[in-house]
Structure formats: structure tokens, C-alpha cells
Amino acid sequence: MRLIKILLITLFFNTFAYADKNMKIGTKGKESEVSRTIKVVMYDNYYEPSSFQIKSGETIKFEVENAGMLVHEFNIANKMMHMKHQPEMMKMVENEILLVDSIDKEKMKKMAKMDKAMAHSHSNSVLLEPKQKGEIIWKFDNAVNIEVACNVPGHYQVGMIAKVDIN
Hints:
Layout: H1 2-22, E1 27-28, E2 36-43, E3 46-48, E4 51-54, E5 59-66, E6 72-77, H2 79-94, H3 105-114, E7 125-128, E8 133-139, E9 147-149, E10 161-166
Parallel strand pairs: 2-5, 4-10
Antiparallel strand pairs: 1-8, 2-3, 5-8, 6-7, 6-9, 9-10
């Protein structure tokens, strides 16, 4: 019986340690703490630059421009978080909020009253129509296993992912 308790306690703590490590993506940054600005251009199904070198603890301002002909997202997360976010993005498509080359912002506001995920107002993400610009200020204070990706249905699957190296 004692061995079973020890195994359960060990499993319990290891599970939380693993889950905690996977959720470390950093935090919303403050303008006053920005150490540098990185300009990012989103083309149809790729980012330029295609990778980012970040120092642990650094606060970056990402100035993002959608130069493509499709709606794109710049989302800072880990793979597991991207996988969880993709069904929300698909739901936006199914509800005709997210269209190929535009976002129905009025419908988004209405749907967000019933389902907050439809608002797409995340501090780690910007969703842009073609020719739009946006920005994210992000502090990589506890970030591990991060990637930038577009979760518009099909875009992640065709490789619209940028690598983030944190040293």
C-alpha cells in the first residue's frame, strides 16, 4: 500500500511539472521594457524571418504585416497550445467570421458575447487581413518550446510556422 501511495505521489508531481513546463510561453510585455523590435512579414503560408533568436527574459516588440492575399495569424505559443487553438479558428470559419481574405468583425463581436473564444483577443496573437499591420509586445521570461504559427485552418499544416530559439 505504501508503494502505491509513493507511486501516485510521484506521478502526481511529475504530471504537474511536465504540464507546467509545456505552458511556459512568456507574458504580455510592456512598451517601457522593449529591448528591441522585430519586423515580421506574413506571406501566404510563411513568415519572414522564418526564425527568431531570443534571449531568455527579453521583451520584444513584433511589428507584423500581412503582405499575403489571405487572412493570417501571428501566434506565439507551444505546439500543444496551437493544437488547442485550431478548433477555435475552425469554428470562426464555420460561423463565417473568418473568411479567406477578410474578417467579419461585426459578426465576431456578436459571437464573442456567446463564446469568448470568437473574439480572438489574445495578448500572444494578432489576426490580420491582407495589407493590415499589427503588433505584439512579448516578454520571454519563462518561455520554452515556443513557435510562432498561423492557426487559420490549413496554414499550420502546410508549414506556416517560425522557429523560436531561446538562449
